[in-house]
Amino acid sequence: MRRIVITQNITLDGVVDAEQSWFDVTADTEQGRELAAVTAEHAAASDGFLVGRTTFEAMRGFWPRQLDDRTGVTDHLNRVRKYVVSTTLDDPGWDGTTVLRGGDALEPEIRALTDGDGTDIVLTGSITLGHSLLRAGLVHEVRLFTYPIVLGRGRRLFPDGWRAENLSLIEQRTFSGGVTLTRYAL
Q: Which domains does the chain have, with CATH numbers?
């Protein structure tokens, strides 16, 4: 059975949207290199990437154009199966992409993916899709790269009213710039 894993960059106050440009995954700094190394570890354990249309289009417009990508993200995204949830996208324009129609079919589509052969399917970005998967109980793990910053506004990872108790801490690491990784099984 495959697992759905949400991986997010997040602020201390729970913001996950990048509108305020508070993190840079391509930064060539000590912390950037440390984060790229752990991201590569996680990527090696996955063969699927799950996103909503908006995040998909942003990533499709950015990562394939990175010719000197030291993070390994471009190679990873070109290698794995990509699943984009969209009711409007017909031609994804990125090899290895399957369009899932979502809506009432979202839960059966995701269950079919997790029932298939393979390794982890990772969701990043795609806040609305993440909320839907959390509410439906389809998420197996949450990986949080918490940045020591408070923004005071922005979209949050967990939907209003959603509650989870007895999360199991799998791992906790701190990086040179103060970012911490915490992984929880749901």
A: 4-185 (3.40.430.10)
